[in-house]
Design brief:
Layout lengths: L2 H12 L5 H8 L7 E5 L5 H8 L3 E6 L2 H9 L3 E4 L14 E7 L8 H11 E12 L4 H8 L21 H10 L3 E8 L15 H13 L1 H4 L2 E7 L3
Parallel strand pairs: 1-2, 1-4, 2-3, 4-5
Antiparallel strand pairs: 5-7, 6-7
Helix pairs in contact: 2-3
Length: about 230
């Protein structure tokens, strides 16, 4: 299977469709920085939001179409297959590296994390968002003896790797990164996971609060803010 060609077609069809509420929550944790690297930048919407906030944003993606979309939004994008090699940047090049729903599409996650540490400056921030395979909905399906592959959920068919908050924290800490904060996005628009009444105003507010306080159980996507020692 030619993944570059597949993701070219994927981004052509998807366009700029993205959960902007999740991205705004994600960016609440981004520290002030001069230069930011966006891994697997996709359609470039997250990068554009960072550019509008005054960041200088570099980007990488497997897809040439995604890189073009990112460049059109003001990002300095380069096409890179992270499963075949490292990042084309010198050590300590960036104040922050952000990864929004990208690592789960990688065959080899550990070498990418090693590259993140390499290109981060001392004291730099790695801001990471991943789908939460330990979400209560997934746990309930497994208890029932199922592992349904459903779009827009942590079991989406495009995901090659699966992550829990605890395991991801350990992967980062093994590389010397210090986790300073965690958060979670409920993503209640995902009808494949949540009953319709979860979108009722009061239920939505309560569940969103739970997802942010206990992301390992209630968040569809967890957020980790980690820092490289000075």
């Amino acid at each position: 299977m030619n993944l570059r060609r597949w993701y070219d077609r994927y981004w052509q069809e998807k366009g700029d469709l993205v959960d902007r509420n999740r991205l705004r929550l994600f960016l609440e944790h981004l520290a002030p920085a001069r230069q930011v690297l966006a891994l697997d930048s996709g359609n470039g919407v997250l990068g554009q939001m960072m550019v509008e906030r005054g960041y200088r944003v570099f980007a990488t993606d497997l897809s040439g179409v995604a890189c073009r979309m990112s460049r059109e939004k003001g990002l300095l994008a380069v096409q890179v297959d992270l499963d075949e090699g490292g990042l084309p940047f010198a050590p300590a090049s960036f104040d922050a590296v952000v990864s929004d729903s990208g690592l789960e599409h990688r065959f080899y996650v550990e070498p990418v994390l090693d590259e993140v540490v390499r290109v981060l400056r001392p004291g730099g921030q790695f801001l990471l968002l991943l789908p939460n395979i330990a979400h209560w909905w997934v746990r309930w399906q497994i208890v029932r003896g199922h592992f349904p592959v459903r779009r827009n959920t942590p079991t989406d068919f495009t995901h090659l790797r699966h992550f829990t908050l605890a395991d991801t924290r350990r992967m980062l800490e093994r590389r010397g990164l210090k986790v300073v904060a965690v958060d979670g996005s409920a993503s209640l628009w995902v009808w494949q996971m949540y009953p319709f009444f979860f979108r009722w105003p009061v239920v939505r507010e309560v569940y969103t609060w739970l997802a942010r306080r206990r992301p390992s159980l209630f968040a569809r996507d967890f957020i980790i803010d980690a820092r490289k020692p000075r």
